[in-house]
Amino acid sequence: MVTPEVYGKPTPEAAVRGGRRARLATGAELAFMAQVIVAAAVFLATSGTRDDHGTGFAAGTEVLKVLVGGLPLLLLAGCLHWALFSLPATALARLTGGSRWETARVALCAAAVTAAHSWWVTALWEVPFGRAAAWIAGTGALPLVAAWHARRRSLGWGAMLARIGALTGITLLAALAGAFLQARTGWLAYEPPRLERDQYAGTWVGGGGAHRLRLDGNGGAEAGNLPLEDRSTTLWGACSGTGTWAFEPKDAAGGPGPSGGARDRVTLTIESCGRMLDWRIGGTAGRPELFTVVDASDSRRVITLHRP
Fold first, then answer.
1. Contact at 8 Å (CB) between 55 and 280?
2. What is the pLDDT of residues 29-44, one digit of tens each?
3. Over 90: is that where the pLDDT of 238 sits?
4. Of 45, 106, 152, 196, which has the fewest CB atoms closer than 10 Å, so is most exposed?
5. pTM higher than 0.85, yes or no?
């Protein structure tokens, strides 16, 4: 008769099958790193469904550069997540009982660890408790499932690396295929909103209030710390003052260009400011925004304005 497996104490047969005794929270850090990589791949694959502000694939490639260059940091983050979340949750579950109701205990212990970390984050950075809890629980669910699976199957690091690596590779291939189909078919492709001239009238702010633009219905404009067009330097200047504005619809605003292609455009003429950058429409119909692109020697900076 085979002795049943007890939580935290696999049977000899299970240990032989796994090649080693299951360690506490084995594979959780691998699952954490894998989900970050997959999330970045999905972000890149769906870039065509978002407003790129005329920068093409720049936003996606920046994420890719950060991910590739930050692999050591990603490894460190995985280990920290394992030590601060997955390991305490599984350890608490192991200390609170045997094999009965182990799944429920793991979930309850994970909720307790999430609440503790959320309280800590809220106290340090004044982040809403619900938002902090959602982020911590969301990033911790998959690693905890991986650790629970490793313990149930008595799997070591090698076996978990093979399984998580295979699933990650399949997901990355699916994301690549989805990106190809989206680019070829244009399915869910982003389209900028179309506003009437009178809908532009009002106050627009950006940069946490650092940039302001007020447009009135009679063609008057008031700029506050808005960028100037100066392609001869890597630093961009700013200017404030009063003047006028003109609305150019999509058909008259020109074809693709550095400010986001064929879109409705607002042209500013501000006294004593020289050549002002044009502002084009972006965002969505429910939350429109005006944006401009400031060119530098090695990058392009997008400045956006929205209604307060």
1. no
2. 999 999 999 998 898 8
3. no
4. 196
5. no
